[in-house]
Structure prediction request, 265 residues.
Amino acid sequence: MAAPSSFKPIVDTEANMGIYGLTGGKGLGMVFHQDLEPTGEAKYTERNANDWARDWAAARARAGAVGPPDSIGPFGLLCFGMTTCMLMFIVTEWASGAFIPMVIAYALMYGGLGQLLAGILEIIKGNTFAGTAFSSYGCFWLGWAVIEYISIVDKSYGINIVGGFPGATGPNFTGKSLWFGLWGILTSGFFVVTLRKNGCLQTIFGTLLVTFFLLAGSSYQPLCGQAAGYIGFFCGSSAIYAALAMLYKSELGWILPGMRSCNYI
Prediction:
């Protein structure tokens, strides 16, 4: 069979799949595979695209061929996880309040700007969920850092992540609780989407929504704040694990626990 006029050769040496090409435009579902006859002439075999794609994926897996990362996800998750763990050092009282300037700096550059950039790139790629989540939490960290900076410059206005506004009563404590509660509700909405993702994302968003609701209650019960610190640290650690798991899957072909897709809804 002669080569179709629209045949565009693609070589996959990693999987040893030879030379193949798509033809006929989108939607026809056919693939033409090129083989060389003993005479040196090319022979083109028409195949169903779905059958060929299955064989291609299996061949690449056998060869250990791993494609380039298709997501900015690992970077975004590290921005979130690392910054969250740093803040929880203070909430759990593993570190003193003197550590807060360090957290502010990383909340601005890593958790804030870095995560916002990851979200924008995901949106450009058409990944709505990752783009919305990364951008939202990136803006959260930027807003938190600005509030903490203002509290350092003007001691009369500030919000302690656990204790609320210094010297504040009733309404201000209620405002802080509503603030955290609102983020908890948003996170609950994101969690629903993860039920069609994987266990890693379910763990991250599940523990994060619990952390937000505990922080909402910390204005009235300090023990809620301390509990939020431990669960929040686990949440941040889970995000770091998920980021590394995604890297290992992309670069090494390893599928770690929690990375397999699931569909609960």
Summary: The helical segments are 49-63, 73-91, 100-125, 128-153, 170-194, 199-217, 222-252.
